[in-house]
């Protein structure tokens, strides 16, 4: 199936986008709802209009199923003003962002708020991430703002001073629901801002002066900002591969609990992607008391296709992570059985990628047939591709994804012994070299004695890179111990791929002889 055909149009989606003038009424309602318990007022329509008009690139909303559930306001300002003591009204031009300076060297965060009914979906984290992307795209030195202390009024009597409370939080001896979150996001405390927002009674009027330093800021202040926010991709993408243990489960819910554990863990490590192995859902067959025939196995599994897909989608949204859902035998509307990978993005979209080349065992045991389409999937971290196990052993498929712009190829695999594994491993390394892309492998370990074609497993999951100076020495960004359940992480730099493709020691994509050969992809219905 194509990625567009697999997208779930009718399901609610959570997206972050630039705010528009027509959002003003909804933003006002959101801010009023968030701050009503503290007695703080909302923005006027004129203030919001000023924020959007003064710096349209810097205002964001989080939208869930058409409703505004988060708002983030920023503007640019020079460091001399941003880093010295100030009040919110002074720095923000009375809430209008009228002090926005297009040549300012710091991004100032004047607002982040999230609908209390939607907390738990990491909306605040998404808005913070958008701010950081914006700062990078403008070449800003960093992000500055005054953070709230909404529990200070209740806790003040337990500390000698607000400064003492801040120091306890800084030393991780006290947890503050807002400040601790900001520190986890890389912000450092510059000090307290007295009378920052006098109407904020919960914070006793104080703000915490916070700074995030942009690690990619230009060295020279005079450098012109040629790039603008909008289409820029993150500089670094964090990926996680799960080496997954096959074991007996008693219910579908128990299986989902195991999957949810790994999604939660990798999300806590701020991974952008997590990938599970091919056919990892076959452990559902272990719920049966007796060994099923191949035909019975397929029928038992296909009833889980829809609930599995929906569960993975919900996890992706809730945990703010893109999930490459291994693969699952799925009966298609035309009656065919295909080995499908569900790619569930954190915005709520679902894409499906079929295995193009089923192995002889898949054909023999389960009558699985190959899919007919291989499409790059657009994500918030750029285009990606999926090659399910045996597909990675066909160079034409990797090149087809590279031609569509894929920077990262995910390979869920399932192999029974070391030689089978090494065929996949060596081919994945070749795909990384010849297409100058990253390849992420995820395999099963453990045994399922009563399941045909899943008796034993061998895997050493890994994250592979091209072989050139900007990358890991052996072309391996991360590796795992063979045959144990574990997770491996790696930070992948997309800019390193661009540099290698255009100026590397070898330039495989660029140096292809199109005058001698080409690959023709025949689209089939």
TrEMBL record:
Organism classification, top ranks?
A: Bacteria, Pseudomonadati, Pseudomonadota, Gammaproteobacteria, Chromatiales
GO MF: acyltransferase activity, transferring groups other than amino-acyl groups
Which Pfam families does the entry link to?
Answer: Acetyltransf_1 (PF00583), CN_hydrolase (PF00795)
Q: Any keyword Cytoplasm? A: no
Q: Per UniProt, which keywords does this protein have? A: Transferase
Q: Which SUPFAM superfamilies match?
A: Acyl-CoA N-acyltransferases (Nat), Carbon-nitrogen hydrolase
Domain N-acetyltransferase spans what residues? Answer: 14-217
Q: Which organism is it from?
A: Allochromatium humboldtianum
List each copy of the CN hydrolase domain by range: 237-494
Protein name according to UniProt? GNAT family N-acetyltransferase
* Family matches, as InterPro entries: Acyl_CoA_acyltransferase, C-N_Hydrolase, C-N_Hydrolase_sf, GNAT_dom
